[in-house]
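Reopening this one. Same input as before:
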Amino acid sequence: MAPSRQRKNVLLFSIIIVFTLIVARLFNIQIISKYYRINAENNALKYETLYPARGLILDRNGQILVSNKITYDIMVTPVEVAEFDTLEFCSIFGIDTSFVHSKFREYRKYRSRIGFQTLPFIKQVSGEHYNIFIEQQYKFPGFSGTPRTIRTYPINAGGNLYGYISEVDAAYIKNNPDYKQGDHAGRTGMEMAYEEQLRGEKGYNIYLRDAHNRIKERYEEGEYDKAAVAGKDVTSTIDAILQAYGEELMQNKVGSLVAIEPSTGEILTMVSSPGLETSKLAEINKYYQEIVTDPYKPMFNRAVMSPQPPGSVFKLVNGLIGLQEGVITPATAYSCHGAYTVGNLRVGCHGHPSPLDFRRSIMMSCNTYYCYVFRAILDNPKYEIIRDSFTKWKEYVESFGFGMKLNTDIPSEQAGTMPTAEWYDRLHGKNRWRSLSIISLAIGQGEIGSTPLHLANLAATIANRGWCYTPHLQKEMPDNPIDPRFKERHYTMVDTSWFECVVEGMYLAVNGGPGATGRLASVSGLEICGKTGTAQNPHGNDHSVFICFAPKDDPKIAVAAYIENAGFGSTWACPISALLVEKYLNGEISKERKWLETNMMNGYLLDRVTVSRR
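Same output, byte for byte:
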């Protein structure tokens, strides 16, 4: 066959195939697929949206933390509205006529864009008002009602954890095209983190209009209606009883209290104080202005959003680095005479016996000891220049999770702050800074900042003798597995063999008798191991810090407390942490320690905090 004839046949064959495909597609669209008919005839159809019930949020024991209750939205299809008695309509819902008039001015302005759409008119109407409306609905053509669910909170605790839901705006819809005007979505907390599971799937009923735009009947007898699919429940790692107790301990204080189960990384409690009241979450729009202008910032989740100096609890990290680098041993002892002094530089310390070995330096929280340790790390002769030793120190510190996001499932988690060699070069001049220039890092001050979650994670890491799981809020369930990243162990750069002597030092800090800085955390039979911290604050009173875990050899809970402007770690953060541990492990506070519980709950520390009032 001639090449020209062959090309002609190929071209003809291709044209026949394309033509056949086009005809088949047109036949499918015009004859077979009702989906396209429904879209093409959209002006003759009315869609009634069916909103799903949002999934519940449960605590680790199955107790409901966030539930739903039925409310109603009054909807309007502006093109169907005829004249009606505005006063009578407003009296049903207790609204002002100006609200109705402003709404219809908006509808007239955007009538071409609105077309035949049905829009929300009044939201979250009570059942009582809705029933009155239903009886008189015939007087108000174009108006209808649809059931919605709003959140309820059986336990008045955990507002910052759960977060809130609100109607999506234009910016949200632009980034999430599956949502439409009138839809709601989680905006903070677990509601946001697990929006995809909790939200469910909308449904709809389709109705046929007549030539006068009146609803006639169900389209195709409901064949193309779609039922709403309820959202999926999420089981959290939170212990509801412990969460409520933690919030009682933290009332009238500014700060955070975080508890983790070391063996799993599950967050048992996360308190941010002052926090969001659950009674205001369901109607967040009503209270939003009040919340955002509160000088104590209740919407600000301090547990993950407030990097502060870790204070003396950071000595544990420096001690472990010193042991790993071989610049100290557990037997290394240093003398302290009330301060660490070199020339004009002075780092003060409190009175205690001297000299101290490593374990007793933790027990008595000696500043001088850790100034020696820090300088030994940075001035280690195996590093040629301080930039190298500092960079190595920084790598160690970051292996404990400091200076970075822990990659949890908590929205708005902050990384904290971590200085770099380049930053010190800019501050002091290249190669012009020494270990003494940054000696404040020895005791957890200076340029390092960590969130209370970082500190709780440190407590869990030490409890596990050198490893941790990423902290998380979703509990593993057979029908709802957690993200694989929450099952991966993370080891520090310090050999696990060194952690035991740190644990022993923390045990002595609580149970070691005279000189122990955490004696108020001692509970008979619990073997609590802890470390106090007093973080210096140039803007006011010092911050009270404490981390701990228990029991010593089979840890079930690790805790960090950070009480802003509360002074010594031993005074407030220490007893509050220990009470939380005792409540979790024993179920109640012993009679001998009830006085301590009363003092902590009644403590009013808000007047110590400097806030801006607008």
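So the earlier flakiness isn't reproducible anymore. For the record, The two ends are 91 Å apart (CA to CA).
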